[in-house]
Amino acid sequence: MAISVQQLRRTYGAFTAVDDLSFEVARGEIVGLIGPNGAGKTTTLRTLAGILKPSSGRVVIDGHDLATAPIEAKRRLAFMPDEPHLFEYLTVEEHLRLVARLYTVQDFDRRAQDLIAELELTGKERALPGELSRGMRQKVVIACGLVRDASVLLFDEPLTGLDPIGIRRMRDTITRRAKQGAAVVLSSHLLHLVQEVCTRVIIMAKGHKVADGTVRDLAARAELATADSNLEQIFLEITGHAPQFAPEKRD
Amino acid sequence: MVLATLYIMWCTAKNRMRRRLSRLREPRYLIGAIIGGLYLFFALYGRTRPRRPPAGVAASPGARQAQRVIASFAAAAPSLGGLALLVAAAVSWLMPFGSGLLEFTPAETEFLFTAPVARRHLLFYRLMRSQWAVLFGALVMSLAYPIASIPARIRGLIAVWLILMTAHVFFTGVTLSRPQVTRRSTTSRGLARGMMTVLFAALAVVLVSIGRHLWAQPILTLRDAYQVVSAVATTGTPHLVLLPFIALVRPLFASGWFEFFKAIPVALLTYAGVIAWVLRADEAFGAMTEELTESEVNRPTRKRPAYQVRGVGWDLALTGRPETPFVWKGALQTFRIVDRRVLIRIGVMIAWLTTVVALFGRARGLAEAIGLLATLGAIFAGIIGPQIFRVDLRQDLQHLEVLKTWPVRPSAVVRGEMLWPAAVVTALTWVFGAVGILLSAATFSTTTLSVRIAVGLAGMILAPALVIAQFTIHNTAALLFPAWVPLGMGRPRGVDAMGQRVFMLGATWLMLGFVVAPGVIVGGIISFAFRRLVGWWILIPAALVCAAIVGAEVLMATEALGPAYERLDLSSVERGD
Predict the structure, then answer these.
(1) Last residue of one domain, picked from the residues A149, A184, A202
(2) Of A151, A207, B151, B531, whose CB count within 10 A is highest?
(3) Is there a single domain that holds both residue A108 and residue A144?
(4) Closest CB to B332 among A90, A102, A104
(5) What pLDDT, in 10s, does the model give residues B203-260?
(6) Which CATH number does the domain housing residue A34 bear?
(7) pLDDT reading at B292 higher than 60
(8) Domain boundaries in chain B?
């Protein structure tokens, strides 16, 4: 398994953000992580990325335990957060070069050129983050994640700030990377995107995993296995918000 | 707007206090707070009690001497204070930074700039919010006021508060006016140029007068300097041009309540005049707020970056030591934030300082003055540099989320973060030190050449070790007490933050003592053992041994800091207020 999470627990003081979370992701799989605000999705992704230390439990990336072999595990990871954190004094090209150096990327120049073209950053190579729009900065973060051959890709709201063309390209990129053998975990509130690209969905609520399976599995569980049932209905049903959010349907 | 401002101030203070108190549940912060609190208590308690000799006991000779000095100073003090204010006001036009009063947080921009309030109210809001900091600064100064009764301290508090507030508002006006000076249009340009011309003309009048005195009779001692400056500031045209500044500082030197109340209205009038000048710069403030609002709403290209792209002639290689990318990153950050205007302003300040020192030391020559300046500069750079130049983990904690994902050994991260700033500060110390050694014949004329060179070279050898040791201590503090470290370019404010800073400074010096002690002891033994044999030259190998020992300690410390970096949690890093 590319990702193995075992009984993960993460607390902030007295507050438990994630509790007893276990799941696995195989190479080529795209797993959608969805849940209401405060469900623990971002904490889960940040813990998987090595930013937060688990309070208890274990995270294994490509056979490397994140606690005991962090460098080997992180070498295989690419985390793309929802809020683009960039160094204000490095240009787009320099960000990519820095990442290439840290992750020992071969054939950097070609890769960087391809990515800059793919993400429509051409002409912005020598721009500083302060000169870029929110969407552009998000693209730079994504480029930094994709410039290396990571076997595990973690996306936290990857489409925030992107324009429609960017969203379409991003969707294609995620699918292509999975086909090339990467394990992808993707957190998003855009349920139609999750339904479209993910091979499996994990629903979280109040720090716990409440459902895990394909959209068809989840629909069956929520007794919504009709022809027009979608992930939004399933999500509302499973998280117990259906009556509040869809009173007409119930009536 | 007043009520809204008070509400924001109350909520901010309440929530900040709650957050800081909850942090005290961690033993490290609790112990730190207790030590900091005790330090503040003992440091200030002694000063709140006026020191009077017991009844029937005559004042000591030292106290009588101090009273005589104060009495002689009292007559010229307002004029000298006024002169100092004039110089500060003129220098503020050359400063390469802006007033903190105009720095709105993203939240303030989101909520207040979009609210239906007048632009002047935004400035008023920032003025209100800055009151706590200014009042606290005044309180500290009044507590530190030497030999004074409780009423004198109260008068001092009010007077210092008035001076600080006026300075605060004036500097805001300067920040708003600077860009207006070169603009084509408008009333704002007239106001900006007018104030600048008046100020520099006043300064020129004073400087010309001082220059005349110097030409007639060079200054040999500090006493001479004091007499010349007092004579200039208290008589003739210079005294006239200094009147508004003297009016502002006069309440501070009032000997009783009657004199104080007599001086206060004129000081308040000066304050009102400065406020009026700043509010007349409404057009400039409007342009600034509009620019800010627009950039915050649209975010993209119009926002002027704080950094400017410029090549440093160093392309990061794709392989090599893990520390190198951090050094490269630090180099780019340093060279990109320093722009030409900053360099020109610094150059002007250095030239001005050198000229003043040279004029004052004309009797013994320019070489001595520059040599002395360079020696002091080397000491200052080596000791204060690591506290000021924070291009290390202290700034990069704000990027912790990114750093933590990198596959780099924690000890390499810590080392890499410190190497660049340590190299810069060392280089600066060496440059000053080299000039100091070159001109040491003039500065330390009674010392032999061999002693001067041996001491100078030993100092140069020790400099990198001392500098990197200080950076290690600062970065250790950042990793162990992240919530007390000002994040990025911001600085936390308030009583507790001040206490923490004092505590951290003391702890840093103490730690530095511990770190250098083994090296100093071994170096000292070597010097003592071979001094008679080799003479002062023994200082050089002794310094080499000392530097090597400190270097080894730093290496061990960075390795030991790895687990602390691993444990460092994003939630423990606090953003500056």
Answers:
(1) A149
(2) A207
(3) yes
(4) A90
(5) 899 888 888 887 777 766 667 777 778 888 788 888 888 888 999 988 988 888 898 9
(6) 3.40.50.300
(7) no
(8) 1-45, 75-298, 324-572
Residues of B near A (Cβ–Cβ under 8 Å) read: 22, 299-301, 303-307, 309, 315-320, 322, 324-325, 328-329, 332-333, 336-337, 399-402, 404-409, 566-567, 569-571
- Residues B545-577 have pLDDT tens digits of 999 999 999 999 999 998 889 888 776 665 444
| Same-domain check for residues A160 and A230 | yes
The secondary element (H helix, E strand) that includes residue B499 is: helix B495-534
> Nearest CA of chain B to the CA of A49: how many Å?
6
For A182, B92, B319, the CA distances from A76, given in Å and listed in that order, are 10, 52, 18
Nearest to A130 among B303, B322, B566 (CB): B303
Domain limits for position A15: 1-76+150-166+175-251
pLDDT tens digits for range B401-415: 899 999 999 999 999
Nearest to B309 among A102, A128, A136 (CB): A128
Say whether pLDDT at B431 is over 80.
yes
Do A139 and A159 lie in one domain? The reply is: no
Count interface pairs A-B at CB distance under 8 A. 100
Q: What pLDDT sits at residue A31? A: 95
Q: State whether A144 and A45 are in the same domain.
A: no
Asked whether the predicted pLDDT for residue B282 surpasses 80, the reply is no
Residues A22 and A99 reside in one and the same domain? no
Distance in Å, alpha carbon of B408 to nearest chain A alpha carbon? 6
In this predicted structure, what is the pLDDT of residue B305?
44
CA distance B411 to chain A (A): 12
Does the reported pTM lie above 0.80?
no
Residue B569 to residue A53, Cβ atoms within 8 A: yes
Domain count, chain A: 2
Which residues from chain A sit within 8 angstroms of residue B294, using beta carbons? Answer: none
Residue among A74, A129, A133 whose CB faces B407 most closely = A74
- Statement to judge: residues A131 and A188 lie in one domain: no
CA of A71, closest CA in chain B: separation in Å? 4
Is A133–B301 a contact, with Cβ atoms under 8 angstroms apart?
Answer: yes
Rounded to two decimals, the ipTM of the complex is 0.86
